[in-house]
Amino acid sequence: MTPSRSRLLLGLLFMFASLSASAQRLPLIIGTGAAGGAFAEYGPAMGKIVAAHGKVDLAPRATDGSNENLRLVNAGTLPLALVNLGPAYQAWTGVAPFAGAPLREFRAVLPMYETPFHIVALKGSGIASVAQLDGKRVGVGPAGGPGEVFFRGLAEAANIKPVIVNGTPDAHAKQVLAREIDALWYGAGLPVAAFKGVTDNAQAVVFGPSEGQAALFRERYPYFAPYVIPANTYRGQGEAIATFAVWNFMVAHRDVSNEAVFAITEALLAHPDEVAAAYPAASATLARNAVANSFLPFHPGAARYYRERGVALPKQLMPE
Fold it and tell me: Fewer CB within a 10 Å sphere, N or C end of the chain?
């Protein structure tokens, strides 16, 4: 199918969605993430709440995560997706791994939660710090995904040369337990299912970067902020863990109907208690956290909700 015909069909689809949204239930696909990651759990959980409070049905589609989601939404292959603001910034500005023309067809919808990155290894491995990952096999998630990109940045900051292993977080957890890899590095809403898969089934240690490593990392990735993982987030983790985190947002193709996006935004942000009960990390899915996005324009449907609720967002990010 030619690009022009693809865009024509996409336009007709979104036009039909706009015309029919007020008359019947509207099914929309939302890109989530890989098995064992938070996106794969957050998407379906939020879909149930959206269905209960509006006329939109969100059908989750498993993907490799943020990088793939951004490309699919930008191309119009998916109308909605869950993304990390780090890759979103890289896509918007056209830098690696999105080198080339910037991707500018997607818009911000709503804040999800912060993603703290951390590491888990078996206690018997003797690994309890980033420095000890030098030369070790480390699972970092899908190839080219945020996990790999950010871990490579941390490895440079720590001056280590680990062996990168790609796969899904769920698969990595099994590899750690089987001692096929030495550690798992990943970022997702707490508690990360793959990390629990390790800590619930073996004696393990969960840790983050040193203060100096974190400072060097954040010089490279300024959209990260300091974060503390509370004690007892995982079995056997008796102390809080200092690390860094970046926000995740739901995004939409700019041509998705305003009515549909407004309905999704209202369903989730107007019912914070239900959202938090459906998924622990979603307690941060609040209208006031929309200010965590500092560069991506908001979809008109979402912007309408924030205006009506009195949430002040940067003027340059609001649609005309």
Answer: C
| Domain containing residue 181: CATH number | 3.40.190.10
Domain end point (choices 203, 218, 246): 246
pLDDT digits (tens, 9 = 90+) for 254-270: 999 999 999 999 999 99
Can you give the chain as a three-state secondary structure string?
Answer: CCHHHHHHHHHHHHHHHHHHCCCCCEEEEEECCCCCCHHHHHHHHHHHHHHHCCCEEEEEECCCCHHHHHHHHHHCCCCEEEEEHHHHHHHHHCCCCCCCCCCCCEEEEEEEEEEEEEEEEEHHHCCCCCHHHCCCEEECCCCCCHHHHHHHHHHHHHCCCCEEECCCHHHHHHHHHCCCCCEEEEECCCCCHHHHHHHCCCCEEEECCCHHHHHHHHHHCCCCEEEEECCCCCCCCCCCEEEEEEEEEEEEECCCCHHHHHHHHHHHHCCHHHHHHHCHHHHHCCHHHHHHCCCCCECHHHHHHHHHCCCCCCHHHCCC
Same domain? 211 vs 269: no
Percentage above 70 pLDDT, the chain: 93
CA distance 200 to 235: 6
Q: Residue 158 sits in which domain range?
A: 115-246
**Residue 213: band (very low, low, confident or very high) from pLDDT cuts 50, 70, 90:** very high
* Model pLDDT for residues 16-73, shown as the tens digit of each residue: 454 444 458 899 999 999 888 889 999 999 999 999 998 999 999 999 999 999 999 9
Structure confidence at residue 280 (pLDDT): 87
Residue range 97-117: average pLDDT? 94
